Amino acid sequence: MRYHTRWAARCHDIEVHREGVSHGSDDRRRDLGGGSIDELLDRAVAAINRGDRATATVLTAQVLEADGANAEAEDLLAVPDHPGEIRRLTILFADLVDSTSLSTRVEPETYRLVVGRYREQVVRIVERFGGHVCSTKGDGLLAVFGHPIAHEDDARRAVAAGLDITGGVARISEAARRRFGFDIAVRVGVHRGPVYLDTEQDDVYGLAANLAARVSGLAPPDSVVVSDAVAPLITRFFQMESRPPAAVKGVEKPVAYYRVTAERPEPIKLTRGPLVGRDEEVALLRENWACAQAGSLSMGMVFRGEAGIGKSRLAAAAVEVAERSGAVVLELAGSEFHADVGLYAVRVLIERRCGIERLSAPTERIRLLGNEINARGLDPATVLPLLAPVLGIAPQHGYQPVPAEGAKLQELIDAAVHQYLKACLGEEAALVVAEDLHWVDSASLAALGGLLRANPGSYLVVMTGRPDGWTGEDWPVTTFDLAPLTDAQTDELVDRLEPGASAAQKAAIRQRCDGIPFYVEQVVAGLTETGVPETLYEPLFARLRASANAIPVLEAAAVIGRHIDRGLLCSVVDLSVEELDDVIEELEGALVLERWGSDGWRFRHELLREVAAELAPESVRRGLHAKVADALSGDADWRLVAGHFERAERFREAASAYQRASNDARRRGALAEARTHLTQALGQLDRATPGPERDRQEMAARLRRGVLISVAEGYQSRAAAGDFERCLQLGGTDLGDDELFATLTALGNYCLARADLGRAAEVVKSLRAGLAKRQWFRPAVDMLVGLLACLRGEFELGCSSLEAATVGVAAGHHDVVAVWRFVPNEPVTSAHIHLALVALVRGDLRGAERELSVSADRAERLRFPQGPYMHAWELFVATWLRIEAGQLARAATLAAELRGVAEWHGFDIWRQRAAFLEAAVGGLAALDTEDVDTAKAMAHTATATTLLDELRTLEANMYSTFYDAVLGRLLIAVDQSEQAHARLSAGLALAEDTEMHFYDSELLRLRAQTHTDHTAIQADLHAARELARCQGAPLFELRAALDDFVSRGESARAALVAAVDRIPAESAMPDVARARATLTLSNTSDG
Prior knowledge:
Blueprint: H1 5-13, H2 25-29, H3 37-49, H4 53-66, H5 71-77, E1 85-96, H6 99-105, H7 108-128, E2 132-135, E3 140-145, H8 154-180, E4 186-198, E5 203-205, H9 207-216, E6 223-227, H10 231-234, E7 238-246, E8 255-263, H11 279-294, E9 300-304, H12 311-324, E10 328-333, H13 344-354, H14 362-375, H15 380-387, H16 406-425, E11 430-435, H17 442-453, E12 459-465, E13 477-481, H18 487-497, H19 503-513, H20 517-525, H21 527-530, H22 537-545, H23 550-560, E14 563-565, H24 566-572, H25 577-589, E15 593-595, E16 600-603, H26 606-613, H27 618-632, H28 638-647, H29 651-667, H30 671-686, H31 692-713, H32 718-731, H33 738-753, H34 757-769, H35 778-792, H36 795-806, H37 814-820, H38 827-841, H39 845-861, H40 866-884, H41 888-905, H42 908-927, H43 934-953, H44 960-973, H45 977-994, H46 1000-1008, H47 1014-1031, H48 1034-1048, H49 1053-1061, H50 1070-1086
Parallel strand pairs: 4-6, 9-12, 9-13, 10-11, 11-12
Antiparallel strand pairs: 1-3, 1-4, 2-3, 4-5, 6-8, 7-8, 14-16, 15-16
Protein name: Adenylyl cyclase class-3/4/guanylyl cyclase
GO molecular function: adenylate cyclase activity; ATP binding
Organism: Mycobacterium sp. (strain JLS)
């Protein structure tokens, strides 16, 4: 409703006289029959705004009858029916202390600057809390809360804004003191009442506005005070101290007020039923249990249905049957907060059986886990290292990790979990109850599936969940899709819950509950307290309102989850232990919570948790999540901690917790899960406040994610490169920064793996520039320089750089490890491996073997993943060496060993390379016998071709021209010269594109064998020989010269002799022996 603007002026000028009116909160809240004074005034304002002046007059008359001098009521009666609005708003007034005096002591420009900062700060804070600044005249600012947008907690918002204003002004004061030599302070007052709201002029008038300004004058500097009209509305959220009533201008009697000292850390907040309508299900339960006792049970049971349909009640019935027999009962349960955490349901089961509590120290967890494993008759040496990662216990707390990664490690852990579950169940009849499987992770579901398939006939497995497709297709189970109760069954349930329920009450329950047993239970539970409710939620709310403390407990419990640890709940709610126990007892009696374990509770149903979760406003919920996250930060369940920090919008802490969850997942071999958690960490950092520390945290997460990708896919992966590139953007140009140096190191390895040698050279150049501040890292850079040179075919430079990398390096130097930890290889071991390749191209077989022996020894001493990864690399080059030496049987053995290492540790890229080598060696071996098996050779050649194409698709291009050469040899040998020519030419094209020329000479030599034109043959052989000589690859030079001698005869002798002379005299390479024999035979023939 709008009013005449002259009323605005009148309200603005009015002086407040409230003769005979007490401003204590008791009088304002006194019930007058139709409500308290405040309630009557609120209703009067609402009546005026909807145009109902008659009702407003009656209500204000009631107020004046009790409080004859109530100025607010008199103002309402005097309101004319003209444009404008009357609103009951919460008003904040902020006023600078001694601003007039300050303005006389400082320069006007300085005063304007400081006061301007103060105004900006106030406006920004008010708007952040949903308020609106109406007036910024002078040094006082008036803000309203409830207009133009109304909130359910405007009084709370205003006081919170006031506290933030005092803090913000204190910071401005500190800056002013440093810069100008003076301080400023602010007083903030908050009042609530009806005002005239001039929407056109964006201003408010009336008693409430004046009183807000008067109340602010009562505040000590840099503090907030509230009137007695506000105090009852905010006492749940803020700590206050009552002040002696004080006189203010315009009010005849002293005004009661309160000083707000701080926001409260936590706001002060406000048996199973009968089994009905499930005869068929219960009968089969009993029948199946009898079969389990006889050892002849082959089927499990699944109860599916919507929330509240009675799944948990049937599970409880199964437990009752088993417990009457004294049987073992294992209970697993899904968790909404852990649906994507591998084996979480199993983890909870193990911890409960071990007696591990939330605050148990890691060493104590290990001890208790060991005791449990012993008690189950299992071998701790083999089982504990596999179960400890399931519990999130790191190896440093007392066990040696299993040397496996990825899928292999997960397979071992799954087997250990299955072994443990069977040991728990024993050989007699036993029951497994698994509830809420729609929230159970896939690994736990797989464990259940394993129990079902391996059931010796004595296990009854009962599972419940919502109909979300979580059951395995091959599970041997009988499934019940539970339906709602019929009307008759609903009446029966009501009669058993409340025998005195009337026919009308039953009809209402049938209409509103739709046959959902849980709904019926909850509605009937509230009948004696509030009557029949309109919805399911009202009985719960009615019971909660019976105790103010029940609300904060339920809000906190809902944030924690369905299962509630007592210690955690105590740390979150702002209640004493005795008060909490009283509330818990009340909630147990109200059938909201039930006992769970020795020192915890759970919501009787997930729906109850969902209802409780809706009680808290979003800001309160964020605060609760923050408290839970802080309380859990000493726990090992980092995925849960991360989720709470995320909901609390503490983004950097959430990211840190996700990173630790990733570490836990990796220890369980769940690489995909580990990567997911790092991706979640990066998502949180996207929402975090920009800054150097945030950027450093993102770099760490991306580098670690790049490692996980590299271990599985090879560090040629584009996904890994994207992370490394982003790290370069974040790192800037400060080469003194270890994180940036680590990024460049990872990116350099990535470029080399993809054979992007031009980009690799740029990265290596940058790394060399950064050595001024870290000479200790020179050997690692020398290795990269050497590897780059070797791939380019610059073997002399490569050899000198690689040898430099191996000189004077202390194995495991901590600084090298810190920077190199983001790639799965190790620089010195890699240097020895590539020195073996240099020795090979020089024809020095024994030298190559020595270098590989050194690399194998070093790899054996390295930890996972570098140790096994470098072992795989060493086996790869050893296989290559044996192929070059014609030792195909040994090559086949080494390739098979490489495949075994790759599969055991989950190294997909090495598994693919091993598969190619096995196919290639198989093809060569089929041709290297007296009885040549061409068909077998062709089959191997086809397999090798497919595998090489797959490697190319992955862009794993390092060494790929060697693969082209081996495949070209096979294709030539099986008379597929055209295909061989195409393959070898493609290899040369790749070499040209990537600058990877280390094997060009061999590609040219082999391609010569595909030509029919003599000129083309001579051209390729000449080019091969000259290139090898220039590169310092005498073995390749000798091979080209020998082929040329066979082709041209004596005219090519000089070149062959020169090539043989450049090979070490003691060379054991068969090519050297063949060349010498050919020359000797030629000399004999000439003689």
